[in-house]
Amino acid sequence: MTMINQEFYYTIEKAGSAEFKDRGSKFIAIAQPIASVEAFKEALNAIKKLHPKATHHCFAYRLGLDGNNFRVNDDGEPSGTAGRPILGQIDSKGLTGVLVVVVRYFGGTLLGVPGLINAYRSAAALALQITPLVQKQVEKEFEVQFDYTMIGEIMALAKQYNCRVVRQEMQLFCNMTLAIPKNRVTEVSYKLQELKNVELSPART
């Protein structure tokens, strides 16, 4: 799944949770936005602390726009019965920047492989159904260096073209990381380079 040529992508901005039951087993799915692997680790640890007595904490996440940054984990369930079905639900909605953890409390009856796949898929689907999806612009980050006197013009340009200030250092000579919507990069770059005492370069990621 690659979104590299698109101008927009879909994600979630707040957490959502839903429950699915089958033959005594309880599956609680928690969907939440994440921006990095570090954020994923923190979120998973927090969920494990909330559900210390759960039998399994299975998950899937997808990050970034190139389709390569994802992970699935069955956490002791038979291989392919939990993480993959969860990721399938994230992908069916075309989402990125999303983690879904499904916590299972075992109810005493074995569900079998088809039953587990259905339970983890259904729990993840329910959590993503109740969580509002948001559309965001694909952006490219640039470093902008400029003389402090140019701040007004830079900010006006950023506002006009819906750019986002990621980071800024304001001294006599200023340094700013600016996220420019992908479909406006040529236009904004040209206008910034037309200004006096302004240097523009792609941000190092």
Write the layout of secondary structure elements.
Elements: E1 8-12, E2 16-22, E3 25-33, H1 37-50, E4 56-63, E5 69-73, H2 83-92, E6 98-105, H3 112-130, E7 133-137, E8 139-147, H4 151-160, E9 164-169, E10 173-181, H5 185-194, E11 198-202
Explain how this protein is built.
The radius of gyration is 22 Å and the shape is elongated. The strands form three sheets. Strands 2-3-6-4-5 form a five-stranded antiparallel sheet, with helices on both faces. Strands 9-10-8-11 form a four-stranded antiparallel sheet, with helices on one face. A two-stranded antiparallel ribbon has the order 1-7. It folds into two domains: 8-135, 2-Layer Sandwich (Ribosomal Protein S5, domain 2), CATH 3.30.230; 139-202, Alpha-Beta Plaits (2-Layer Sandwich), CATH 3.30.70.60. It has helices spanning 37-50, 83-92, 112-130, 151-160, 185-194; strands at residues 8-12, 16-22, 25-33, 56-63, 69-73, 98-105, 133-137, 139-147, 164-169, 173-181, 198-202. It contains five helices and eleven strands, in the order βββαββαβαββαββαβ.
